[in-house]
């Protein structure tokens, strides 16, 4: 049992606030991904959970135990560092065995675990090498193997696949997901790659400027962003936004189109994902600017009401730059945000 | 007739003069260091007749008589032993005190850190002759005079700034993340230091210890003032060789210089590291 509870945790570096009052609960054996742009505080939060950084305020609980006063070794965690931190004076084998030796496990057990995790990370042929003789991606895999070999209650990973090529990354991602699902580990996984986040997570915590904006399942985060930021950060291409003005009760004028919407509020923003637009007789008047055929779909960047507006359209459709289109939003996929707070409305 | 080789325009004038100046300076500096050492070696390895004779051949005679006589000279063996004893004590003390200070400087933020770094270097600004008399008085009062430990304490003061700076640079060269990784893998602070940091800095620590040894080995002023019976080799030589024949002076000089040269040569890259020029 290793539920992680973070209560009101903040971190200040001098006058700079890296984390603002974070509240987050991660269930036992859950795979939680922290997703956010560079510098939003992901590593800082991870380091606070690991015990490498002291929070300026708040509490951290792991498995029903308050741990914020405990050193890292007493928290039942293992961590994969963003810069690998592979020990240069030890072989790959001894690196992976390091934590096991600290636990004083018998040699046979050490051998078995090192070989098993090395095989998993496809580094079994590198066990005799030193870190100076490895590529960045290989070092990264050693770091992951070293953490996995510990078989900890909680594993904290800071961008553990960032240095692998696309193919290997895809493969490792699948393997990691399999391994961690079979073990009874609670995982916190930091990334700024949203595809990775989507594919791995039970839940995604989207962070922005030291705050958690939304913590929900990948589909929920994608379909129902809790804030404008989430919609604009997740999805490739991201959500489209247009200002909306109230024309009547529950009716909003969006770029010349009347759209039914929330009853309350007076300054809202209309939002729609590019793939939820179709070409129809009725819809936003759009002028195509850039047309990018992507095989399965065609990405059209158009202008609607003087704003940039993207649509993912069927590739059968013949569109060329300069064409006038009518883009119709799927009614059930329309989302509304408060223009002042940026939070979801309606 | 076509000439396929392209003429590279030669930079004469300013560039040439600059280059000449640089090379001239290099040659001058090398000569400044090497010529005395060379003369010392030649004369130490020549017979007494060759040393005082004229004209000089400029080549060593490979006569070991002077060195042999010097080695058998009454008191040399004891002075050599004292020198080694004091130098080893100095080495142990300056690393024992300097390395923790270097670690603290590189790993912890504390108020007055920069001032402390400056002060460490500033200790070298006090002229030893000025301190020697009060020190001698104090040592006599505490019974530290004429002991190896007393002299080693003074030498430690001289060696510590270097020990602190070299070890500071060594520890700074080791990413904190390596220690942190060890902490998350079940180590406490001390175990992480022992298992991760120490193996990585050990060669550098050894070098910095050798440097402390050399400082003590070469130090003559404090040694001459603070010891009477238990003289170290340099103090002994100053006292005795003044009144010795020329060839013995050369032999004594060589006995002093060669070990120091070898030591410094062995640890040279760490001395550069001290100034942040190169980190291994
Ligand atoms: N020791 C520190 N002192 C001062 N500021 C710091 C310190 N550590 C981190 N910060 C700041 O805190 C913010 C969050 O840093 P953090 O490393 O958590 O970002 P991140 O989300 O992990 O980014 P990335 O994706 O680039 O790794 C950054 O603006 C960073 O400059
Ligand atoms: Mg980071």
From TrEMBL, chain A:
**One GO MF term, please?**
ATP binding
One GO cellular-component annotation of the UniProt record comes to: ATP-binding cassette (ABC) transporter complex, substrate-binding subunit-containing
Q: Which residues form the ABC transporter domain?
A: 4-234
How is the protein disposed in the membrane? Peripheral membrane protein
**Could you say which residues form the signal peptide?**
none
UniProt xrefs under PROSITE patterns: ABC_TRANSPORTER_1, ABC_TRANSPORTER_2
Q: Which SMART domains match?
A: AAA
Q: Which UniProt keywords apply?
A: ATP-binding, Nucleotide-binding, Transport
Family, as annotated: Belongs to the ABC transporter superfamily.
Q: What is the name listed in the Swiss-Prot or TrEMBL entry for this protein? A: ABC transporter ATP-binding protein
This protein's species is Devosia ureilytica
Automatic annotation (TrEMBL), chain B:
Which family is it part of? Belongs to the binding-protein-dependent transport system permease family.
* Source taxon at top rank: Bacteria
* Entry protein name: Carbohydrate ABC transporter permease
Q: What is the lineage of its organism?
A: Bacteria, Pseudomonadati, Pseudomonadota, Alphaproteobacteria, Hyphomicrobiales
PANTHER family with a match to the protein in the record: INNER MEMBRANE ABC TRANSPORTER PERMEASE PROTEIN YCJP (PTHR32243:SF18), MALTOSE TRANSPORT SYSTEM PERMEASE-RELATED (PTHR32243)
**Is Cytoplasm a UniProt keyword of this protein?**
no
One GO process term, biological-process aspect? transmembrane transport
Localization: Cell membrane
Which stretches make up the ABC transmembrane type-1 domain? 80-267
In which organism is this protein found? Devosia ureilytica
């Amino acid at each position: 049992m290793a539920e992680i509870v973070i209560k009101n945790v903040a971190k200040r570096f001098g006058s700079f606030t890296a984390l603002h009052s974070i509240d987050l609960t991660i269930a036992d054996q859950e795979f939680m991904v922290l997703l956010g742009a560079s510098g939003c505080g992901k590593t800082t939060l991870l380091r606070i959970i690991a015990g490498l950084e002291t929070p300026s305020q708040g509490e951290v609980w792991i498995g029903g135990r308050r741990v914020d006063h405990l050193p890292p070794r007493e928290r039942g965690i293992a961590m994969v560092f963003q810069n690998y931190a592979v020990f240069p004076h030890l072989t790959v084998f001894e690196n992976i065995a390091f934590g096991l030796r600290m636990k004083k496990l018998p040699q046979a057990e050490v051998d078995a675990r090192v070989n098993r995790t090395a095989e998993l990370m496809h580094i079994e042929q590198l066990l005799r090498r030193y870190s100076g003789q490895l590529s960045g991606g290989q070092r990264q895999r050693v770091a992951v193997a070293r953490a996995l070999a510990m078989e900890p209650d909680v594993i904290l990973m800071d961008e553990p696949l960032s240095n692998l090529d696309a193919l290997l990354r895809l493969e490792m991602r699948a393997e990691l997901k399999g391994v961690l699902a079979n073990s009874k580990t609670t995982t916190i996984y930091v990334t700024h790659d949203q595809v990775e986040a989507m594919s791995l997570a039970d839940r995604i915590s989207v962070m922005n400027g030291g705050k958690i904006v939304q913590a929900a399942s990948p589909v929920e985060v994608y379909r129902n962003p809790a804030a404008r930021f989430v919609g604009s950060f997740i999805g490739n291409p991201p959500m489209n936004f247009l200002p909306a003005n109230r024309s009547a009760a529950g009716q909003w004028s969006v770029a010349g189109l009347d759209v039914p919407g929330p009853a309350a509020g007076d300054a809202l923003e209309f939002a729609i994902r590019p793939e939820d637009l179709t070409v129809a007789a009725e819809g936003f008047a759009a002028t195509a600017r850039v047309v990018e055929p992507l095989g399965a779909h065609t990405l059209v960047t158009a202008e609607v009401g003087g704003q940039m507006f993207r649509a993912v359209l069927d590739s059968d459709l013949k569109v060329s730059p300069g064409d006038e289109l009518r883009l119709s939003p799927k009614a059930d996929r329309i989302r509304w945000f408060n223009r002042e707070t940026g939070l979801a409305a309606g | 007739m076509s000439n396929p080789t392209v003429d590279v325009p030669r930079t004469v004038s300013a560039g040439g003069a600059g280059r000449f100046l640089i090379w001239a300076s290099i040659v001058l500096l090398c000569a400044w260091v090497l010529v005395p050492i060379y003369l010392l070696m030649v004369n130490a390895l020549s017979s007494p007749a060759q040393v005082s004779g004229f004209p000089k051949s400029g080549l060593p005679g490979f006569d070991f008589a002077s060195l042999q006589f010097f080695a058998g000279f009454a008191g040399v063996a004891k002075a050599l032993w004292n020198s080694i004893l004091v130098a080893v004590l100095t080495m142990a003390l300056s690393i024992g005190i300097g390395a923790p200070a270097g670690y603290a400087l590189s790993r912890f933020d504390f108020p007055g850190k920069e001032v402390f770094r400056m002060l460490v270097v500033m200790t070298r600004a006090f002229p030893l002759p000025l301190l020697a008399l009060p020190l001698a008085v104090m040592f006599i009062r505490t019974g530290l005079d004429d002991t190896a430990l007393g002299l080693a304490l003074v030498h430690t003061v001289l060696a510590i700034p270097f020990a602190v700076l070299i070890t500071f640079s060594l520890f700074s060269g080791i990413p904190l993340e390596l220690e942190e990784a060890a902490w998350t893998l079940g180590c406490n602070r001390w175990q992480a230091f022992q298992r991760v940091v120490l193996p990585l800095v050990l060669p550098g620590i050894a070098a910095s210890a050798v440097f402390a040894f050399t400082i003590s080995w070469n130090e003559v002023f404090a040694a001459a003032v603070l010891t009477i019976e238990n003289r170290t080799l340099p103090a002994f030589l100053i006292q005795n060789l003044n009144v010795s024949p020329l060839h013995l002076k050369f032999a004594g000089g060589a006995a002093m210089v060669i070990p120091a040269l070898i030591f410094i040569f062995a640890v040279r890259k760490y001395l550069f590291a001290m100034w942040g020029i190169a980190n291994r």
